[in-house]
Amino acid sequence: MKPISLIQDLVKDSAYEKGYQVGQFLGENIFLILGLLIGIIVVVIMRKTFNSKP
């Protein structure tokens, strides 16, 4: 087999497609995900520091 045919077979694989879709989603929404994580960390620190729920 030629190396080109191996690459073409991998591109059509469903696992490759799912991985590509997940990577594309993370790439497009990286700032939203980071903002969510920072917000959760801030809420945990606020609850421990001020003993009040936001």
Automatic annotation (TrEMBL):
Record-annotated membrane-spanning stretches: 29-46
Keywords per UniProt: Membrane, Transmembrane, Transmembrane helix
The protein's name in its UniProt record: Uncharacterized protein
